[in-house]
Structures are given as structure tokens and as C-alpha cells.
Amino acid sequence: MVLLIILIILSGMLILQNLSKLLRGNKLLFVTLCQLSYSIILFIFLRVPYTFKVQFKGFVPFLFAFALMVFLGRFLGAEQIRFYKKISSTEIILIGILLPISEEIIFRGVILSFLPNIFLNALIFSCIHLVNAISKMERLSLFNFVYRFIVGYIFAYSVMNTQSLFCGIISHIMNNSAGLLLLSRSEHVTKESTDTTEHKDS
Question: Is the distance from CB of 125 to CB of 148 less than 8 angstroms?
């Protein structure tokens, strides 16, 4: 029963993301606002017991994992999300701040409250991001899978030990925002006119 509920929750998130393909205009804005609203509704309706109290347990391990990703990722097969135009400040806000908040509420809030298993939570979090490879936003990378599992494990461990989503949210925001700033200077970003609003970070 629990696994069915989790499957329904994840299916709802993926459906919202794919609805953007039917729209014109700013698809990224639509996806972000829908996913954020979806996460808040789930959090309130399902009465998730976790709080947002300021806690930093798990932040140091995250910094260590992030540093390894930045400095060793290119040698170990890290794969960046592909953008084809200069990343705007709006995209940084949406991908760097709002999407991480919604993902932490869904994965470390809702799903972890139903299935309080740190390992499985990290595995689910890492597996759901394989959609990036399926949608060709990035090439399939074992390093990316392992990195997302590690940070997902750290975030879930923090929530289980503090009963607060704060550290996971702050760390996830830092991860995405710093990644976008690094990506904006990479070879993936060109001045070609291509719609990038279907793309989002992990």
C-alpha cells in the first residue's frame, strides 16, 4: 500500500512535468509553479510531520560530497544538464531555488514520512532523475546516479535525525544554484536559439 501511494505521488509529479509539452510560452515557469503547488498541497493534505526548523545536521557531509563532484566529476564521468542559451536570472530562481524546495518537500517530506528508510529514499531520488537521461537532457552517467544517491542519503539522514527539512532544502538550493552558475560558463551553453524551458536540474 505504501509503495502504491509513493508511485502515485511520483506519477503525479511526472505528469505535471510532461504537461508543459502541451503549452506554449514559459514552460519552465509552468512546471516549477505546478510542482511547488503540488508539493505544498501534498505536505498539508497528508499532514507530513516534519518541520522547517533551522538545523544544519548533514550540511558538512553535503559540502564534502559537492566538493568532490565539482573537482572530480569531470574525471569520473559527471554529466551536466544541457542548456543551449545563456541561463537567465529567472531560470536560476526557478531551477536553483523553487524546484529544490518542491523536490525536498516531495522526497524528504512526503515520501520519507510514508517510507522512513534513508537508503530507499536516496535510491528513489536517484532513480527518478534518470528521467533526465531518458529525455536526453544529459547522457546517462553512473557518477551522476551515485552522486544523487549520496546527497539524497545525506538529506534523508538529516531529516530523520532532526525532523526538519531545513538542511536538505538549503543544501539542495546550494547544489542547484552553484551547478547552474558553473554550467553558465561551460561549453554546453551557446547562443543558439533553442527553447530551454523544458529543462530542469536535479
Answer: yes
What whole-number distance in Å separates Cα of residue 201 and Cα of residue 47? 27
Contact indicator for 27, 140 with CB cutoff of 8 Å: no
- 162: domain range? 2-183
Confidence of residue 78 (pLDDT cuts 50, 70, 90): low
- 165, 104 Cβ separation under 8 angstroms: yes
Decide if 160 contacts 112 (C-beta within 8 A): yes
Query: Per the structure block, which three cell numbers stand in for 183?
Result: 554550467
Average pLDDT over all residues of the chain:
85
Please check whether residue 195 lies inside any domain of the structure.
no
CA distances in angstroms from 161 to 29, 56, 154, 157, 198, listed in the order given: 33, 11, 11, 6, 35
Kindly state whether residue 193 falls inside one of the protein's structural domains. Answer: no
Partnered with residue 46 across adjacent β-strands are: none
CA distance 122 to 92: 25
pLDDT score of 126 more than 90: yes
| Within-domain flag for 87 | yes
Residue 193 neighbours by CB under 8 Å, 6+ apart:
85
32-46, 121-135, 164-178: range with lowest mean pLDDT? 121-135
User: Is 31 contained in some domain?
Assistant: yes
As for how many domains the chain has, the answer is: 1
